[in-house]
Fold:
Amino acid sequence: MPGTSRREHILHRITIGTAALLLLGSGVATATAADGGGGFDRNLNPNAAPSTRPAAGPAMNAVAAASRPVSGKNPSAGPGKKDTAGVWQVTTPRVKLSNTVTNADGSTANLTFEVWTADSSGNAKTQVKISDNQYGVLVSDFVKSGSTASVTVGAGRLKPNVDYVFHTSAYAKDSGLYETSWSPWARFRVTMPVDLTLPNPDASAQNPDQSAQPYTDTMAPPSPWKTTAGPSRDRSVAPGTFGTRCTTSSDGVKVCGKAEPYDGRNFTLHRGTAAQSSLVSGCDPANPRAGLWTTRFEECSSFTMAWEASLNDVPVGTVKALVVNERQLDPKSGNITERINVTDVDVPATIPAFTLDAPKIDCEPSGNCGVQNVSGWTGAAAWVPGDHHSVTADASYLWGPDLTGPNTTKPQVMKLGVAVALQGNPKIPGQTVQTTPAVFMDVAGGDLENGGASDQIRCDNTKIINKVPTIGCVFHSYVSTYTFNAAKYPQASSHAWLIQHKLANHPGSKADSKPLYFLPDGDISGNRTVICPTGWAAANGDTSALNGTTDKELNCDEFAFNATYNSGGMPSLAGGLNPVSSGDACVQTLANKQDGIVHLFNIDGLVPTWKEVCGRSAISGNDNSGSMAGFAAFNANQRLLDRDPYWLNTNMRAACAADSTTVKCTMTANNQ
Structure:
């Protein structure tokens, strides 16, 4: 039939064959809903002769010189391999079924493929509808005698993790003769390399509070982009330490003041009581943490201070103190407040008394950062041996983008350096003592860009989320965390979990110290076009993943996000960290519902190597958009600027099978 498609040709032969059977009174049952509906005449007898169900064409009587075709003895299913039990392990729901066919007279023949579910012993149980024709079977093209005939079962016809068997029967094109029996059964099972079983979505699950960022002593990892060190960096002072400052009086008294971070071991606590409550929520001056702890807007850091006194180069004694420093920034202004807690002073018996002057604070750059106020000590700033009481002092300073205050029309981003000096005055009877500062600071050598410590402050007056410019300050080395509502949007959360855990670049993983880097500008839509071209989700996804009547269409979910430098679509010349030429190079998955449960599977035939650097998944549109709905507010609240790092908490945990060849996991939302 010139111009007639193969499918039309097969359906035409099916119709002819059915009519012939009816005329011959073959007794074939009429389809019912119980048989599968849609005109499906389910086979109830796996051993029924092939000619009783003539899907390949009309059965005819034997003719002279014609021979019956014969199926091969070793049918196969793929793509995949046969395991030690003889079961084909197929890695895609689009299963290719194959067998050889021969005909002694040399004429061409085809094969009818019939699939059944199987019991634990591999025996056929129930026929599976693998096509929409009357018999629910697939018929191959005609092939030469001795060749292999194949069909492909479409996606959705077969379910993962179910045991199936299939057999074939041959049909000769010229003679119209059927094979008198079926081929041997071949057993197979669809085992997906990626199979995440997702929890049912909880529409009432509350969105995480993105402003509730925890205190941490883990700051941002080194930048992935090469930077040039500033020439003015004072490299005589090692990072995390501060220089010793000494003064000598005319009568030979020398006092050296020094400071270093408190590490929990380099000071003996006497458990002095703080003079007043703490300034920031995560700080307890009476029970200080070791080292530096911050959020995006609050800091709690501890230092050991020492003033070593000597007379004519003979040591007299050393006064020691523990200082807990608190800073609070304002995300909506340039106001910075600070509280200095001297929580514990230890004066040796060789020094009768010790006093502190009011702290001196320097804020750089001097034209943009000005100290507004420094209070005196709350409590008596004088100690004698055995006295360990605490005192505090408050300070405030202000950043403005230019000398006249926050009125400039040109946006500025600026790092600040702050130094706090404590003048220590040990009393030595009959001697003159010069005051000597012990200084702790977050910048060394005046190089704000390259000399900053991890608690350096950054202020800006840029636009955040297309709003008017606002002034605000952050501890820019603190890495904020965006948290998914995994209970409400399990598809997006599970996809991000898969990519974050399985790929070597672990995008957004705090545990692996692999942050995402924010991209506020640039060709974000271009990034998405590379990874998620128009129509990709519709062509590769399954609408069973849609959730409810408001979920209108499938989306392509890209991870890492297109608004990051981690995006596979971000070119290297623009700073991209994982550039690919096409989303075809990513791990490719889809959400698919099986027996009422949504799974995340690898897309048919695409087995991840786990050497990929990106992922794309065809998932629910509501999940894709809803999972990121809170990001704009998160961005504004945390004042993310270009290339700022942040973590992604997928809010998912997984219970995974031990099989190293597959990623088969049951997912649970942490906020369920």
In short: Residues 6-24 form the longest helix (19 residues).
